[in-house]
Amino acid sequence: MTGLLTARPLPARSKAFDLLFAGALVVSAGFLGLAQARWGGLLGLAMLGPLIWRRTHPELVFFAVSSVAVLQWLGGVDLQPGNVGLIVALYAISVYGDVRLSRIALGVGGLGVLMATSRYWSNSDWRQQVTMMVALGALVFGVWAFGERRRTRALYVVQLEERAVQAERDRDRESKLAVSAERTRIAREIHDVVAHGLSIMIVQADGGLYAADQSPEAAKKALATIGDTGRASLTEMRKMLGLLKQEEQRELDPNQPRPQPGVSSLPELIDNVRDAGLSVDYQVTGAPRDLPALLGLTAYRIVQEGLTNTLKHAGPGAHTSVTLDFGREMLTVVVTDDGRGGGVAPSTEPGHGLVGMHQRASVSGGTVNAGPKAGGGYEVIAKLPYHLPNGGQQ
Fold first, then answer.
1. Residue 281: beta bridge partners?
2. How far is 31 from 29, CA to CA, in rounded Å?
3. Alpha-carbon dihedral sign for residues 75, 80, 83, 85
4. Which residues form the signal peptide (predicted)?
């Protein structure tokens, strides 16, 4: 059973390092022992060779090296430079191996200390034996404890990485849910707008039918109104179908019909916000014009969201201004505050309200830019064209 760290793919650079490390030990300690004693040198090489796989198979490496050490003890072979492989294998299993097997390896190391003391220092003074036992035991335990500490830190880093990945997934999922919810809300509003347009067409058609004989001009005017209203409603439906493409169809609540606000409803909205304690200046520049229902609703919602964000984040004492600029080609909506109240700093990540602004503006072929101002405060600028990029009416 391997540990969590060995379950992760080992980089090619780490594999090359393990090969060079084991090769260096074989060349230095292994061949040095082989020069001193042929049989003991071979055992030393056998304890150093498996270290190539010390990170990928730490349990098997420790078992193999320990088995060779037992053969060395049974054969009465003196300690060799290759015995350093025992320390390296113990460190490897404490860092990369299974936790339970790592503790068993510590016990095996302690038993090895007793066996080595009884064999290689059996003729020494008891004080020397105790000294060697304590020194070897401290070495074994110290190596194992250092490996455990490194394992703990490495696992902590792995957990942080996994949490970061999960947090990113959660942000993506929340963003998608926010977009889906906003699209559903827009679909319901478009439903009301289109239903209103169809109601006008029906009324005009009935009126034109009755007036056809007595007043042909009135009938023509009714037919023209029907054509204009139908084209506008069809354009809105096409935009909505493009926006909600690949989205699941959701049932609309027939019990919630309501007139949708537009730019004419902004004074009432601003008065309500002023009643809530926010200082707001409202001005209109350019020549006001009648706007399609969808475009007016988009402008209203953007102003509403901008004022809501100011109430939430600008802090007490903040001053806000709302400007509608009726240009030749587009309507520009600006919501800005000075943030004098020292409110909460704007987040570095877009919230659901900002996502909704972008979605609404994109339906009308417009854009929204929002962010902190250089001198303090926050600013939202929306540019909403009167005509779609393909030349159609909104």
1. 321
2. 6
3. negative
4. none
Which pTM was predicted? 0.42
Characterise 317 by phi-psi region: left (phi > 0), alpha (psi -120 to 50), beta (else). Answer: left
Q: How many CA atoms lie within 13 A of 362 on its CB side?
A: 14
Q: Which of 165, 192, 211 is the last residue of a domain?
A: 165
Is residue 32 in some structural domain? yes
Nearest to 386 by CA among 325, 326, 330: 330
Residue 298: which domain range? Answer: 263-385
pLDDT of residue 349: 43
Tally the domains of the chain. 3
Query: What percent of the chain clears pLDDT 70, i.e. is strictly above it?
Result: 69
- Are 94 and 61 in contact by the 8 Å Cβ rule? The answer is no
- For 321-352, write each residue's pLDDT tens digit: 999 999 999 999 999 988 754 433 444 444 45
Question: Distance (Å, rounded) from C-alpha 46 to C-alpha 50?
Answer: 7
Using one digit for the tens of pLDDT, what is the confidence trace for 233-287? 676 666 666 555 544 444 344 344 445 688 888 998 888 777 666 789 999 999 9
